[in-house]
Design goal:
22% strand; 32% helix; 9 helices
Length: 283
């Protein structure tokens, strides 16, 4: 059952927050949707927006400042929560980079995480719910994300190019198999066999493909991001794209850090990027 928790008028459209019982997670899950004014007249393209560590379904909608340009372009925005809530697993809330708010958008295979931490499949479940319940063009859905969510966006797009027709990211974790955040999460969720990690590593996935997004991928990275040297590794994804002959626009910005001041500066360009890829003539 889909329950609307709240709604708020926003740039001629409406910002809504929902709850539903997830089959994949086995718990209630929350997500948010921005419906642009054009959605009152018919179907519109849509963009999934995956937030990062410690965030919720509210974070992108409140902080990114994306609704204004989404309303102008006629693009629906969808933001899921970043992890299950209420699983009450041992140690689930002991650290900020594992457990609650830190799913890494994968399907855990190790106990106790494997019962509820199935966020990769949950995003696909939510995709199907959005297509059924909201006025979207199923052939015009893209995905973006920030940090851990940027990792999730790249992985979901690379593994499901028939579903997600465009992909971008802000300061994504590009090689989680090689960084402290990713190693900690992957070891806990997926176990010690590192071969199983590569299915959730965007750089490893790209090395196995040949230009899955021929019209290009957009990534923005701040050069004053304190996580850049040890956690993000955009150069690994850049090298993998070169090997796969995948067009990539990786923009490096002096002075910008990892947070939402950075995201809000460039979010308009990402919205326009996706709208062009998703068929700006649809409306």
């Amino acid at each position: 059952m889909l329950e609307m928790i709240s709604e708020h008028a926003c740039f001629g459209g409406v910002q809504r927050f929902y709850s539903h019982q997830s089959e994949e997670i086995g718990l209630p899950m929350r997500f948010s949707v921005y419906l642009p004014p054009q959605a009152r007249e018919g179907k519109v393209p849509a963009l999934f927006c995956l937030a990062g560590l410690t965030c919720t379904e509210e974070t992108f909608m409140i902080k990114a400042g994306a609704q204004r340009i989404a309303a102008e372009q006629g693009l629906m925005l969808i933001a899921p929560d970043t992890s299950p809530r209420g699983a009450n697993l041992p140690g689930e809330a002991d650290s900020w980079d594992l457990g609650v708010g830190a799913s890494f958008y994968l399907d855990a295979t190790e106990a106790p995480w494997n019962k509820h931490y199935r966020m990769y499949s949950y995003v696909l479940e939510l995709y199907e719910l959005i297509v059924r319940k909201f006025p979207v063009y199923p052939s015009s859905i893209g995905i973006t994300g920030h940090s851990m969510g940027g990792h999730g966006a790249l992985v979901l797009a690379l593994r499901n190019p028939a579903l997600f027709k465009s992909v971008s990211a802000f300061a994504p974790i590009c090689a989680p198999s090689k960084c402290p955040w990713g190693v900690k999460a992957f070891a806990a969720y997926l176990g010690s066999k590192q071969a199983s990690w590569h299915q959730y590593d965007a750089s490893a996935l790209m090395e196995q493909r040949h230009a899955p997004f021929t019209s290009g991928i957009l990534i923005d990275q701040g050069l004053s991001d304190k996580f850049l040297p040890n956690q993000l590794f955009p150069q690994a994804f850049e090298a993998a794209c070169q090997k796969a002959q995948q067009p990539l626009k990786l923009r490096r910005h002096a002075d910008y850090d990892h947070g939402y001041y950075f995201i809000s500066t460039f979010v308009e360009e990402h919205i326009r990027f996706h709208y062009r890829k998703l068929g700006g003539t649809l409306r």
